[in-house]
Amino acid sequence: MVRKIITRIRYPVLIAGVVLCLVGIAQAATGNIDPNNKWAWGSNAGWINFRPEHGGVAVYSDHLEGYAWGENIGWIRLGSHEGGGSHTYANDAADNYGVNNDGNGNLSGYAWGTNVGWINFNPSDSQVTIDPVTGEFDGYAWAENVGWIHFKNATPAYNVAALHTATGTGPAVFDADKGVIENLSSVAQGALSCPPEGKPDLVFPHGFFSFSVTGLTPCQHETVVVTITLPSAVPTDTQYWKCHDGAWIDVTSLLGDNDGDNVLTLTLTDGGLGDADGECNGVIVDPGGPGQPPPVPVGGFIVPVNRLELVAPWLGLVGLASGAVLTVVVVRRRKSG
User: Fold this and answer.
1) How many domains does the chain have?
2) Would you say residue 92 lies in a domain?
3) Range of the domain at 105
4) Does 136 share its domain with 180?
5) pTM higher than 0.85, yes or no?
């Protein structure tokens, strides 16, 4: 547990030229920050939580959004955009500011806090980056009123890390229309309890995910729509499979919004198909992942299963050639006789 150190902000808080309202925080999504790696630190700002109880930061392939909470400085908004999807902040107006991600984990642009002003994620002397494989933040951001904010340190150890796929394709975001998503993690196929036998003939480019939806009313069979934003688009014939008790289970019937972009929806019912614990207990447990048919090989030809069918044309050619040779031999013998 990270030890919280209370510090006093030594610099006076300035009033920004444009006042931006931080609204709807209590209803904000939890984002995709690792609950065990959610702390940044500033000598003048104190601890900053990127996965607070009533907020959360979501990392997408092209931008960040959501809210972080500083114990001494209050709410920090990572961008004016909400709702996920593709977005790039122009950072040229009060309603179009935020932190951009270049797709390789290099961050730029500005976050905003009412009490601290603008926070630059790509100042002249540093830059905040995200490891494209581990999801770990690193580097320093510069806040105009409270100085440097550090995202990764060895001693004392602290770090901010976002959920990335087990295959290293990039960040993934899960949002539920009710309840709270907890224990979200990415899972490699080799870590599943299901054997290769029985595995569907699919590829899982983004690996698998495990999570729970809590906070539902027990014994009410509540239905939850989980929106999954993946690092890249998936085809319209994408399927969704679970690994449960050592068996592969096809739950593609629960998929929605499967229109060829990078967003899928998964409709889960407490105690129903898709709930791994099988109980109507106010908790939905979901281990699974999106799979798609393997790519079709380019070029080549199909070999017939029947081997006789394969060699029959060649046998015919061999027979014709043999007949021609015999004919030539017979003719030569006649001439020589």
Assistant:
1) 2
2) yes
3) 25-162
4) no
5) no
Specify whether the CB–CB gap between 36 and 73 falls below 8 A: no
232, 61 contact by CB (below 8 A): yes
Residue 168 belongs to a domain: no
CA 321 centroid distance within chain:
63
List residues bridging with 255 in a β-sheet: 266
Inside any domain, residue 297: no
- In 85-219 the beta strands, taken as DSSP E runs, fall at 99-101, 107-113, 117-120, 129-130, 137-138, 140-143, 147-150, 152-153, 158-162, 173-176, 180-187, 208-214
Contact 145, 158 (CB under 8 A): no
Domain presence at residue 210: yes
Give alpha helix (H) positions in the chain.
Answer: 307-336
Q: Which amino acid is present at 203?
A: V
> In terms of residues, how long is the chain?
337
Within 105-189, residue ranges assigned H as helices are none
Encoded tokens for 24? 């709807």
**Each residue's pLDDT tens digit, 254-311:** 999 899 999 999 999 998 887 888 888 888 887 799 999 998 776 655 544 444 444 4
**Cα(27)–Cα(310) distance, rounded to whole angstroms?**
66
Exposure on the CB side of residue 251, measured as CA atoms within 13 A: 24
Same domain, 158 and 177: no
Cα–Cα dist 105/158, whole Å: 19
Decide if pLDDT at 181 tops 90. no
Contacts of 226 (CB under 8 A, 6+ apart): 174, 175, 176, 177, 181, 213, 265, 266, 267, 268, 286
- The span from the CA of 131 to the CA of 325, in Å, is 71
The answer to whether residues 51 and 57 touch, using CB atoms and an 8 Å cutoff, is yes
